[in-house]
Amino acid sequence: MLLEKIPQIKHTNKNNFFLLAGPCAIEGEDMALRIAEKVVSITDKLEIPYIFKGSFKKANRSRIDSFTGIGDEKALKILRKVSETFKVPTVTDIHEISDAAMAAEYVDVLQIPAFLVRQTDLVVAAAETGKTVNLKKGQFMSPESMKHAVQKVLDCGNEQAVITDRGTMFGYQDMIVDFRGVPTMKQYAPVVLDVTHSLQQPNQSSGVTGGRPDMIGTIAKAGIAAGVDGLFMETHFDPANAKSDGANMLHLDHLEKLLTNLVALRKTVNTF
Fold first, then answer.
1. pLDDT (tens digit, 9 = 90+) per residue, 162-206?
2. Quick one: pLDDT at residue 205?
3. pLDDT tens digits for 211-225?
4. Looking at per-residue confidence, does 248 or 109 come out higher?
5. Distance set, CA 43 to CA 87, 96, 126, 253, 256 (Å)
6. What count of other Cβ atoms lies within 10 Å of the Cβ of residue 172?
7. Which is it for the CA torsion 263, 139, 114, 74, positive or negative?
């Protein structure tokens, strides 16, 4: 089973969905540890397999003056400290071939951003590290086309591929989730729904992406009902002042109630 091969992951025998959650970007050590401590406490209570998420750098910003990171090695060391402190696996996204081996020294799962999932050399570099590879479905791609991204990982001798759906472009400034893609993509690999990025409203005239965080519960519940294997959410104790993607984040104070409801829904779905 894929989850059981990820170091330090817990609660894999509970037939629950797994969760990738954390801040969009690593802004500093204190904030990362604060968020991780809260999410670990909740997921242990609810017996949810958990992977801490944090980007060590943000390469795909709309504006040149947008926050991109605190320094690659500094952020990666914080991810390692989160893992060592709370005994949980970690995931971060990579943007260049050289990022793969570097990030693999610090984290357990390498994530390929949606805009880059067709970049063969990048996917191959991630796969060749032997780490689990989370492939985000491009906003411009069909569910069926993701089988080719998964196959690139498999062709490298790595069977640890995951697909994450983060919505599909609907016009220029909105995203939608086509839940028909969930059973299609589950033929190729375990499927995760990226709830918060699916609610982005990109390409705003200000150059700062907007979002609909009020819809997080609705999309998450629909994902569980559709049979996703995992959920991805970005969360922060102060989304309004987060340095990246605050407009579509879930406030950390709302996470426990949402996950409690989702666990109950999952138990119902498992009876069908």
1. 999 999 998 888 889 999 999 999 999 999 999 999 997 876 656
2. 58
3. 788 999 999 999 999
4. 109
5. 13, 32, 28, 14, 8
6. 9
7. negative
Closest CA to 117 of 138, 145, 92, 91: 138
Strands 50-53 and 230-236: unpaired
- Amino acid (1-letter code) at residue 135: L
Closest CA to 212 of 223, 201, 224: 201
For residue 9, what are the contacts with CB-CB under 8 A and spacing of at least 6?
3, 18, 49, 50, 51, 88, 89
Integer angstrom CA distances of residue 129 from 26, 35, 157, 226? 22, 28, 10, 32
Banded model confidence at residue 62, pLDDT cuts 50, 70, 90: low
Distance linking the first and last C-alpha atoms of the chain: 22
Give the Cα separation of 268 and 27 in Å (integer): 38
What is the pTM (predicted TM-score) of this model?
A: 0.94
User: How confident is the model over 12-49, as pLDDT tens digits?
Assistant: 999 999 999 999 999 999 999 999 999 999 999 999 99
